[in-house]
């Protein structure tokens, strides 16, 4: 990993098109400005990680896996509590088509 | 009534007000801006997060309080803005808002819940957001099933 020291207002470049500037430093945080072409996605690392986890979640649950999850959750019944549920008004708005 | 073919339910009819609007989609699925949240008694406490535009996309979720009874929701100003809540009158989980954790099943492993990025719904405004936390307090893969041997 390349490590460098920069002060507020100083910049560095990644390739010809990407420029990164240190805008502000406080005790626990640093504000960073990124200039890059629109085609380059810039997201916080935790958002990128969430995206990968969402993809995994969507791919992991087929109809079979779903039944299996239901079973597993029921086994853990003792640990589960019903302290939250969707509001009742929602149920009036959705019905199973017969 | 509108209707769609939901992945685990078959044909479902719903009023437009039942739809939750995710203005930015969710990470990895940015183009999915509308979701229906479905429940059924047999699979309680699972909540199904069904994409309106893609019948084949349905996440399964559990309330964050089910995955971790002591879960503390924290929303950044940008999340509150999407939910349509004022910063000085924050939404209160359980009353105005519901928070859910998406469930992932890895092959051969116990299901896990994503407590690091809860799905938060504002029941009043019908807006939703995946409120990605920037702290490291909760896991992306929080185990949902405790060891039976502990009983």
Please give a handful of descriptors for the protein shown.
heterodimer; A: 98 residues; alpha+beta; three-stranded antiparallel sheet; 3 helices; 35% helix; elongated; B: 151 residues; mainly beta; nine-stranded antiparallel sheet; two-stranded antiparallel sheet; 7% helix; globular; disordered C terminus
What's the total number of strands of chain B?
Answer: 11
Q: Mean pLDDT of chain B, rounded to whole units?
A: 84
Number of helices of chain B: 2
Query: Largest interface, per-chain counts?
Result: A-B, 45 and 64 residues
State the strand order across the main sheet of chain A. 1-2-3
**Span of the ends, CA to CA of chain B:** 47 Å
Structural class of chain B: mainly beta
Helix-strand pattern of chain A: EEEHHHE
The rounded distance between the terminal residues' Cα atoms of chain A is 60 Å
Number of helices of chain A: 3
Low-confidence stretches of chain A: 75-85
* SSE run of chain B: EEEEEEHHEEEEE
Please give the number of β-strands of chain A.
4
Radius of gyration of chain B: 15 Å
What is the strand content of chain B?
25-35%
Computed over alpha carbons, the radius of gyration of chain A is 24 Å
**C-alpha geometry of chain B:** globular
Largest sheet of chain B, if any? 9 strands, antiparallel
């Amino acid at each position: 990993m390349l490590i460098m020291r920069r002060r507020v207002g100083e910049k560095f470049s990644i390739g010809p098109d990407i420029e990164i500037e240190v805008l502000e430093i406080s005790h626990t945080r640093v504000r960073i400005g990124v200039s890059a072409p629109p085609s380059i996605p810039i997201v916080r690392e935790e958002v990128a990680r969430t995206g990968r986890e969402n993809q995994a979640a969507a791919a992991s649950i087929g109809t079979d896996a779903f039944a299996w999850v239901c079973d597993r959750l029921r086994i853990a019944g003792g640990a589960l509590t019903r302290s939250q549920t969707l509001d009742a008004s929602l149920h009036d708005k959705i019905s199973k088509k017969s | 009534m509108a209707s769609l073919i939901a992945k685990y339910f078959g044909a479902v009819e719903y009023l437009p007000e039942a739809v939750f609007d995710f203005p930015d989609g969710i990470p990895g699925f940015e183009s999915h801006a509308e979701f229906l949240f479905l429940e059924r008694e047999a699979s309680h406490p699972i909540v199904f997060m069904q994409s309106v535009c893609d019948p084949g996309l349905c996440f399964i979720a559990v309330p964050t309080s089910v995955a971790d009874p002591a879960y503390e929701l924290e929303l950044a100003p940008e999340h509150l803005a999407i939910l349509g809540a004022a910063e000085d009158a924050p939404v209160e989980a359980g009353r105005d808002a519901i928070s859910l954790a998406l469930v992932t099943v890895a092959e051969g492993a116990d299901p896990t819940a994503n407590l690091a990025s809860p799905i938060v719904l504002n029941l009043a405004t019908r807006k939703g957001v995946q409120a990605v936390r920037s702290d490291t307090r909760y896991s992306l893969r929080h185990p949902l099933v405790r060891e039976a041997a502990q009983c």
